[in-house]
Amino acid sequence: MEKNTLRTAYDFFIVCCFACFLWPSFLPAAMGAKTGENEILAIGTATVKDGNLAKAKESAISDALTKGVENYLLNRLGSEGVANNFQRIIYDILPRAKAKIENFNILSEDETGEEYKVLIKLRVNEKVIDEKLREAGVVVTEGPPIKVLFLVSERKGGTAYYWWRDPETYSSMSGTEIVLHNVFHERGLSPINRTSKVPDTGYSESLKHVDLRDVDALEWGRLFSADVVIYGQCEIIGKKEVSLALKALDVNQGAQISQTVALEKIKKGSKGKRPVMEATKRLANRLAVKLTPAIIRYTASDRGRIRHLEITLKGLSSYKQFRAFRDFLRRDVSGVKSVRQTRVRKDSISIAVEFQGDRKRFVERVLNHENLPFLVKLDQGEGDEILFRIEKFR
């Protein structure tokens, strides 16, 4: 009896070990195979018409493939990227979605009443999608967000209200500014809160005119360290409609990016400020659809340009300090393509740097980098020279 009990226990142990060995092979069937890289699950639905199941299945598969590409683009571009390129995506990318798919498998299908549903696993062809995105001009911001300064006046009853007439007096934002800040922030730009820090400098009279020249609007952008200035006016016409005109200017290149204007009716029978603000918000969203992608594409092309910068490092106490700074530029500062020594003086060394981006972005990346080998401050150089002075502690 004792021998049979031991034998039974031994057999049970062997069976358990065998089951544990085989169990992993059953997991994919029990749990479903995981989706791999660039693989997406999607459900497609179609209506069964006149009992034609084959046609319904074909339509359901097509619906699932389109949804799969939609999901891929949402994950890749993010909500801001999709919102800023919506028209290009729905007209240039999503049509003929099947051509952008490498392969797909039907995992399950079901007919319920007049509906036919399929669950598919698909793999997108990234090379094809990359090419289509480039052809469509779809651009997503990389690196720090684009800083935008709004110079938008409000006109009511023939009177213009605008903050740049006296920046210190107009210490709170107008309703139009708040709407514009929120709308463009939702699309991935970084509106500058001009109330938090007023530039500590005198302002020429030309900077205080309600109708600014482009050169003056750009100067305001430089004073607030903006990448882009959006200049224009919002006018309330009677109690019937709101007009909004906006022009985007690139501060770094001193050029116009785009401009647009639109009208929006104020809902009848409404009183107070709320209907006006709602109409302004609808207007701002309509104009942002055009301006934001143009701003992103324009600044992206500027950021991608290689520039030749002349840098002087002053206050050196040894050549070892220069080597540390040179190696820091080559190794840690993103966008630096080459660093070459050009001139040596008693306590300074000049270098030529090839940098992918503009002068301001280079300076920001150097001064704000955690691996900067020693403290430096930006000083006034000659012409376009960037002068860094090593700070000495006493």
Instruction: Please tell me the CATH architecture of the largest domain by its name.
Output: 3-Layer(aba) Sandwich
Give the rounded overall mean pLDDT.
82
Provide the low-confidence segments as ranges: 1-7, 12-33
β-sheet strand percentage: 25-35%
Main beta sheet strand tally, sense and closure:
6 strands, mixed
Helix content: 25-40%
- The 3D shape can be described as flat
How many domains make up the coordinates?
4
Number of helical segments with 4 or more residues: 9
**How many E-type strands?**
14
- Return the string of H and E elements: HEHHEEHEEHEHEEEHEHEEHEE
- CATH class descriptor of the largest domain: Alpha Beta
- CATH names the topology of the largest domain as Rossmann fold
Q: What distance separates the N and C termini? A: 93 Å
Please identify the structural class as seen in this structure.
alpha+beta
Radius of gyration using CA atoms only = 31 Å
